[in-house]
Structures are given as structure tokens and as C-alpha cells.
Amino acid sequence: MGAVPKRKISKGRKNRRRAHHALQASNLVPCPSCKILKKSHAACPNCGKYKNKEVIKTD
Fold it and tell me: Residue 58: CA atoms inside 13 Å, Cβ hemisphere, count?
């Protein structure tokens, strides 16, 4: 059997603990080749380049 809490955790205490669980906006950086905003450390969805090398074929 696992441990059982002796007392109920109040709503305020529970919510203070969860204060840092909110979603945060992802960090967007401009692509060095086409200057469109993209997620950092990811291939550009517009031109398909990552570190100035084409990794995704685009039309």
C-alpha cells in the first residue's frame, strides 16, 4: 500500500504549487535565409533549411 495524506491539501496551497504549470509561448527566432519567424533549433517551414542546409524539400 502506498502512503496516504493525513490532511486535505487546501485549494490555495495546491494552486500555489501549480503556479508554474501554465503554458508558455515558444521562443521564435528569424530564419537566417528567408527571415520568417520559426521555432529555434528546428527546420524552417517556409524554406526548409536548418543551419543553412536544405533538409526539407520545398516547392
Answer: 13
The pLDDT tens digits for 1-52 are 799 999 999 999 999 999 999 999 999 999 999 999 999 999 999 999 999 8
Continuous H helices in 1-59? 11-17
Distance CA 37, CA 44 (A): 8
Backbone φ and ψ of 53, nearest 5°: -125, 140
Distances from the Cα of 25 to the Cαs of 18, 21, 28, 30, in angstroms? Answer: 18, 13, 9, 16
Give the integer Cα–Cα distance in Å for 32 and 50: 9
Domain ranges of the chain: 25-59
